[in-house]
Amino acid sequence: MNIRIVENGPVRLATETFGDPAHPALLLIMGANASMLEWPEAFCEALATHGRFVIRFDHRDTGQSSQFPAGDPGYTVDDMATDIIAILDAYGCADADMVGMSLGGYIAQMVAERHPDRVRTLTLIASEPLGWDGADLPPISEAFLAHFGGLASLDMADRAAVGAFLLEIARLCAGSAFSFARDDISARIARDLGRRDGFETLFNHATLEVVSDWAGAYARITLPTLVIHGTEDPILPFAKGMALAGGIPGARLEPLEGVGHELPGPLLEPIAALIADHVGARSRPRP
């Protein structure tokens, strides 16, 4: 990996790029507790072949980016949104197509609300509306909550135990459309754990708060938006994707039948093609 460190004040963010820097930028924003490796290289390369300069990065407390005190990181989700602007500035990008998954989609909406001039298009995968103010939406699955409840007794110094815990999270997130890719996911987890300096801060994002008043923010977004959501998502159920697409003016919903809270290998190319089609009509060279 050819890692470039971007600084946002005292925060150091590990980034990696794919494709021609002269092409329009596309920034990938992953979800909570997840490093850039959750965006598979094949997916990044596919987007690059569609004429985008692709940037992926490690959030705070993931991968090779800055780590903060375990259980009390001292930053908010709002702060993570400022990291996006720092990355764009570091690469000299006036704006970018933004693709966010899960919490990454939430963060992308924050950037679109606060800095609409820095965002060309939004693609929101397995996410939810920022500042939802409608009827109650379905909760996270009980099975996932039960597993995550075991975090308190997990030995964070035991790499094998941590890896097994993460593998079970991935299994619980998977839908029925495809066989669970245990070997591939295990290899990715092992690679990810090998990039970290200890595991104590691995789940710091579970403690984060949103501090600004974002009420109704999703409905104020006027950017071209594509919502991609699995119909069997156990973390952010499909109804949240429907609410997101229904609440953003002009947004288009692309359901993934039988897919959970995941990017299944067989769908990497089709999802990349969906995104390329969404952003392609708005291509322009970087200034």
Describe this structure in words.
With 287 residues, this protein is an alpha/beta fold. It has one domain (4-137, 201-280): Rossmann fold (3-Layer(aba) Sandwich). The protein contains 9 helices and 8 strands. It has helices spanning 41-49, 77-90, 103-114, 142-148, 159-173, 182-194, 217-220, 238-247, 268-280; strands spanning 4-8, 11-18, 25-29, 53-57, 96-101, 119-125, 225-230, 252-256. Strand 3 (25-29), helix 1 and strand 4 form a beta-alpha-beta unit. Helix 4 (142-148) runs antiparallel to helix 5 and helix 5 packs across helix 6.
Ordered list of secondary-structure elements with their pairings:
Blueprint: E1 4-8, E2 11-18, E3 25-29, H1 41-49, E4 53-57, H2 77-90, E5 96-101, H3 103-114, E6 119-125, H4 142-148, H5 159-173, H6 182-194, H7 217-220, E7 225-230, H8 238-247, E8 252-256, H9 268-280
Parallel strand pairs: 3-4, 3-5, 5-6, 6-7, 7-8
Antiparallel strand pairs: 1-2, 2-4
Helix pairs in contact: 1-9, 2-3, 4-5, 5-6
Q: Summary?
A:
The chain has 287 residues and is of the alpha/beta class. The protein is 34% helix and 16% strand.
Key attributes of the depicted protein:
single chain, 287 residues, alpha/beta, Rossmann fold, 9 helices, 16% strand, globular, disordered C terminus
Q: CATH H level: which superfamily?
A: Alpha/Beta hydrolase fold, catalytic domain
Instruction: Say what the CATH topology is.
Output: Rossmann fold
One letter per element, helices H and strands E, the order comes to: EEEHEHEHEHHHHEHEH
Strand tally is 8
Mean pLDDT: 96
CATH architecture descriptor text: 3-Layer(aba) Sandwich
Helical fraction: 25-40%
Classified by CATH, the class is Alpha Beta
What is the beta-strand fraction? Answer: 15-25%
Structure annotation, total helices: 9
CA-atom Rg in angstroms: 18 Å
Q: Strand sequence of the main sheet, in spatial order?
A: 1-2-4-3-5-6-7-8
Q: What's the main sheet like?
A: 8 strands, mixed
Coarse morphology: globular
Distance between the termini: 27 Å
Q: In terms of per-residue confidence, which ranges show pLDDT below 50 for 5 or more consecutive residues?
A: 281-287
Structural domains: how many: 1
